[in-house]
Design goal:
Structural class: alpha+beta
Family: Belongs to the oxygen-dependent FAD-linked oxidoreductase family.
Radius of gyration: 22 Å
Helix content: 25-40%
Oligomer: single chain
Shape: globular
Keywords: FAD, Flavoprotein, Oxidoreductase
GO molecular function, one term: oxidoreductase activity
Largest sheet: 8 strands, antiparallel
Pfam families: FAD_binding_4 (PF01565)
InterPro entries: FAD-bd_PCMH, FAD-bd_PCMH-like_sf, FAD-bd_PCMH_sub2, FAD-linked_Oxidoreductase, Oxid_FAD_bind_N
Length: about 525
């Protein structure tokens, strides 16, 4: 069962919640780039004096530099492409405050890295700038008196669940064990989201370090309530389906997200095509928190479709969190779409689902002989109406469409390059752009920030986009983050009133726990 409880959580973003220019103006000319490098070097020297050499390392001054520079999940964000001028290995919130105050005063470029699991190149690392790494802040604990989990920002969800499982509690967190706490800033999908909403819907309080180094605490009912809301960005069966079942399976997905009211039912579908075999597989993860009879009833349409293999078994939440893994050490890029669900037994077609799959296959066919591509994925993650409703009941978030909107599906199109490939291929990138331009998408539904391309206007797709822009303008009146770190765009304002997001370095929150 899921019970409301408090979690105090010190956390750090893997990317900034608000916006930044998609192109750093400091890189527009050799002179500007040189200036950025000089400023970064001066900033790093000051940070070494204030925080000490063990916490602030350069490529020539510290043994942990290479480890930190290669801490990102995607190869495109590692040391072969980005060499931070220095890395701040923060050990507490005060270190973060000191780092941000110095960065702010020097107008230096910077990046933040928590779990490092980002498909956006340059969002969790930096060239000619300061990287703040949380690899040394990676512990979690449980307070039974307060029914509270405390997590440091560098911890990954698998580590937290492993620590909490013997205690009978689990946070509403990531579905993949390697993913870090930055997941929350994109909203965060959990195996518990159908009942509890996005992971970020379960905040209770947040400690936030602003770009100038100021630490504030935001809750739903204090002076930072607008900031608090803005930051909200078992039977089980694994089934492998043949391509001949794809049309029926896509229909089942469309019907499930529209019609399902059962908050105990969770479904994820992954279509994968590896190079060079090009043998597409379709895997469906069906999870039910309840009896086998209820499982069979909720997933009846899926179970009626021919499949090549299945492995039904009861799993604990700990086992479930470790059932799916993403390979590391390869360059990966994401693209996103969202499709409305379709009622079963109606005249409404699932043509958009079929067209999206057709375009996925077209991409694979076009680049079947590419020496660069390792594999592609097409992933469908439901956002049920119950999840939307849970978000509103917990104070709302900027992401959700209007209350009453039927369930929909978040679509991820992923291109992962072969191991050893450190640069994107121009032709493959053009192919991804064609997919993004032509992939069906339902108007009025939000994209999922954590699984989108840097060029996609994710914030503009949010149900409360205007609210987000107002909060953005209020808390960063100098547009520091836009000018000095990469991240999502869409909240820019006229130069006369330039505003931009603070860096979300630390925040505490309370989440429901699953017992």
């Amino acid at each position: 069962m899921v019970a409301p409880s408090d979690i105090f959580w010190l956390v750090t973003s893997a990317y900034n919640w608000c916006c930044s220019s998609s192109v750093d103006q400091a890189q527009n000319s050799t002179v500007a780039s040189t200036s950025a490098a000089t400023i970064a070097a001066q900033t790093c020297q000051q940070l070494q004096q204030s925080l000490g050499a063990p916490l602030v390392q350069t490529s020539s001054s510290g043994p942990d530099y290479s480890l930190g520079a290669n801490g990102a999940w995607s190869t495109f964000n590692t040391e072969v492409n980005f060499q931070p001028t220095c890395i701040v290995f923060a050990s507490n919130a005060e270190d973060v405050q000191t780092a941000m105050k110095t960065i702010y005063e020097n107008e230096a470029d910077y990046a933040v890295q928590a779990g490092g699991h980002s498909g956006m190149t340059g969002w969790n690392t930096i060239q000619d700038g300061v990287l703040i790494s949380f690899m040394n802040m990676n512990t979690s604990s449980y307070d039974p008196d307060r029914d509270t989990i405390t997590m440091e920002p560098g911890v990954r969800w698998g580590e937290v669940i492993t620590a909490m499982e013997p205690l009978g509690v689990a946070p509403v967190g990531g579905r993949i064990s390697e993913v870090g706490t930055g997941l929350l800033l994109g909203g965060g999908l959990s195996f518990l989201s159908a009942a509890e909403g996005y992971a970020s819907d379960n905040y209770v309080s947040l400690d936030v370090v602003l770009v100038d180094g100021t630490l504030v605490t935001a809750t739903a009912d204090n002076e930072y309530a607008d900031l608090f809301k803005a930051l909200k960005g078992g039977a089980n069966r694994f089934g492998i389906y043949p391509n001949s079942s794809s049309e029926a399976l896509l229909g089942a997905i469309a019907h499930f997200v529209h019609d399902t009211n059962d908050t105990n039912a969770v479904m994820v579908t992954v279509i994968m095509t590896p190079w060079p075999s090009m043998e597409t597989s379709i895997s469906v993860l069906l999870v039910y928190n309840g009896t086998e009879a209820s499982f069979n009833e909720s997933f009846a349409e899926f179970l009626s479709i021919p499949y090549t293999s299945s492995s039904p078994s009861p799993l604990s939440f700990f086992e479930l969190s470790n059932a799916v893994h993403f390979p590391a050490g390869m360059g990966t890029l994401f693209s996103a779409s969202s499709l409305a669900g379709v009622p079963a037994n109606s005249a409404v077609s699932v043509d958009d689902y079929l067209e999206l799959y057709r375009q996925y296959n077209n991409f694979n066919s076009m680049f079947a002989t590419s020496p660069d591509v390792g594999f592609t994925l097409l992933d469908f993650s439901p956002v049920l109406q119950s999840q939307i409703r849970a978000g509103y009941e917990k104070g709302g978030n900027p992401i959700n469409p209007p209350l009453g909107t039927p369930g929909y599906v978040i679509v991820l199109f992923q291109v992962t390059y072969r191991e050893g490939v450190t640069k994107t291929a121009e032709d493959v990138e053009k192919g991804r752009e064609v997919w993004m331009e032509n992939a069906p998408r339902t108007p009025g539904l939000p994209l999922f920030l954590s699984e989108a391309d840097a060029k996609q206007q994710v914030f503009a797709s949010y149900g409360e986009y205007e609210f987000l822009k107002q909060v953005y303008a209020k808390y960063d009146p100098t547009s520091f983050n836009i000018r000095h770190t990469e991240g999502p765009s869409g909240l820019e304002v006229p130069l006369a009133t330039v505003c931009e997001p603070f860096s979300i370095f630390n925040y505490s929150l309370h989440l429901p726990l699953c017992f």
